[in-house]
Amino acid sequence: MSEKRYYWLKLQKDFFKRHDIKYIETLPNGREITHFYLKLMVESVDHEGELRFSPELPYSEAMLASVTDTPTDIVEAGMAVLKELGLVKVDEDGTIVLPKVVKMIDSAADTDEARRAKRYRERKKAERDETSQENVTGVTDNVTNSHESKSKSKSKSKSKSKSIKENIEEKSVVSLIPQNGSEKLLTDTDKMFLEFWDAYPRKVDKTGSERAFKRIPKLKEVFPNIMSALEVQKNSEQWNKNNGQFIPHPTTYIHQQRWETVTEHDELQTKINEIVKANIDDFLV
Which of 87-96, 98-107, 174-183 has the lowest mean pLDDT? Predict the structure, then answer.
């Protein structure tokens, strides 16, 4: 049975202060157009910012009016303005694309929450069992001590002191093992994610990125490809212009498997850039 996945749209608190949104709201029916744009964003959230009625049929403006429950004249005016501002694009096949939405999408499977709840219940049960065992041990020791002679009590006391010392030493060793989730013994998958996270230039939503990363199919096989592609993309013109504005969020990079978009031309251009940079550095020295 496939797991159910939930999607949501992450709006910045200054969304309505953005220049493009403020401009839209100065237009006739501007508030209605903004409302229509929000409806398009929500409708596209589980399609990575794209809208299409079916693989065979793109949306018409009349269909958009019906789906979003928006008057046709608002849809027509809204699509014209949104296209002009680059908030909406229409591909040659009629697919409607909302470029800014991709960076605002996040998702989680219902099983994620179920697994967290299960781990919490198991941890609490282990804590209760440990407490119960300590209580039983304490009662047993009290009953035994009350029936022993003074000499045996002294012997028992020495033995108990030794036992306490051993327990302290044992707990000291155990404490070196991370407990309660503050740290954890790293698996190969954990190490791969940390290497990816350390290399990724835009550090946003580490928890969501880790969940998405660990769901990559055949992760161990594709990991070298991910890291080599990432190295190329980090040095690409696209990722370096406008102070990294066009670097995708790591969750988007993972969900869309962006490492597969690197071509041999990109790799060659990266090598050329490295050679040129090295020669310039040598010249400056």
Answer: 174-183
Torsion of CA 256, 191, 179, 205, to 10 degrees: -30
> First vs last Cα of the chain: how many Å apart?
63
Overall pTM > 0.70: no
Residues 6+ away with beta carbon under 8 Å from 69 = 39
* 263: its two tokens: 């071509």
Mean pLDDT of the chain: 77
5-107, which class in CATH? mainly alpha
Inter-helix orientation angle 61-68/72-84, to 10°: 110
Q: Which ranges constitute the DSSP H helices of 176-218?
A: 188-199, 206-214
Domain with CATH 1.10.10 in the chain: 5-107
Count how many Cα atoms sit within 13 Å of the Cα of residue 83 in the half-sphere of its side chain. 10
What distance lies between CA 180 and its chain's CA centroid?
22
